[in-house]
Amino acid sequence: MSSYLFKKAILPVLAIVAISFCGSIASAAADPAAKNLSKSDVEQIIHDYLLNNPELILNSVDDYQKKSARSTQGAALEKNKDTLFKDSDSPEVGNPKGDVTVVEFMDYNCHYCKLSMPIVLSLLEKDKNIRVVFKDFPILGPTSETAAKWALAAKKQKKYFEFHKLLMNNKTPISDGLLEKIAKSLEMNLEQAKKDADGTETLLQIEKNRTLASSLGLSGTPAFIIGDDVSFGALSLEEMEKKISEERGKKDKK
Predict the structure, then answer these.
(1) Strand 130-136 relative to strand 229-232: parallel, antiparallel, unpaired?
(2) Which position among 56, 139, 159, 192 has the lowest Cβ density within 10 Å, counted as fewest Cβ atoms?
(3) Is 93 left (phi over 0), alpha (psi -120 to 50) or beta?
(4) pLDDT digits (tens, 9 = 90+) for 120-142
(5) Residue 44: its pLDDT value, please?
């Protein structure tokens, strides 16, 4: 942490020390010695207090970092909301005019992304007024990127979600043979899919997703964004429904 951030984070601690110190002075007002404390005496008291209560510094620094991250992330969400929610190149399912959009950043080699797939399917089945947008964010090796390219190629043949589901349900290592097998099972044009998977548009889409993820401070998968709420890791159906309900509540108040 930079010295500037440390100073900002330490201010709450010093406030606590000051309050505690003033309280001690007030309770000891009857003691003549308390009225004659020098600057060095005060500094020593603060030093001893912090030394005996190190968790105050750690907690304050941690709280400051979280608040700073939320503030930065909030600004990034506002700045990138069109790319996040309205990018026509990003695959989507559900109700195109749904009142709540769920954005998922995912990787086809991600175990927790696979666990999240049934949750997303349940949401789409139960709630006919949501829209789900997928951001292919391959971070777990070369096969993750290859899989993302093929999935985006499937989008060009209007087979993205079918391809996505089959790949998420796959339990074997990702390979070119597997991706071709899935494409064939969906009766995709295989040669066109290969060209699109290796095409510039597909590569640019993945890089756009990576840039977006970086600006939002996302470093892992899955990550879910609902309104201005960013969640890291797999969510239960109940957690997802609660966040959707909260977002609807916000919209109703506007």
Answers:
(1) unpaired
(2) 192
(3) beta
(4) 999 999 999 999 999 999 999 99
(5) 74
- Give the contacts of 22 (CB within 8 A, at least 6 positions apart): none
Lowest mean pLDDT among 15-19, 81-85, 95-99: 15-19
Instruction: Look at the block and give the residue holding tokens 């009142």.
Output: 99
Residue 10 corresponds to which tokens in the numbers above?
Answer: 């330490």
Could you give the CA distance from residue 131 to residue 95 in angstroms, rounded to a whole number? 5
- DSSP code string of 140-185: S-HHHHHHHHHHHHHHHTT-HHHHHHHHHT--S---HHHHHHHHHH
Give Cα separations from 20 to 45, 61, 129, 205 (angstroms): 10, 19, 53, 55
Q: Is the pTM of this model over 0.85?
A: no
Q: pLDDT band at residue 2, thresholds of 50, 70 and 90?
A: very low
Question: What CATH fold (topology level) applies to the domain 83-253?
Answer: Glutaredoxin (3.40.30)
Domain locations in the chain as residue ranges: 3-73, 83-253
pLDDT digits (tens, 9 = 90+) for 54-96: 665 555 544 544 454 455 667 888 888 888 999 999 999 999 9
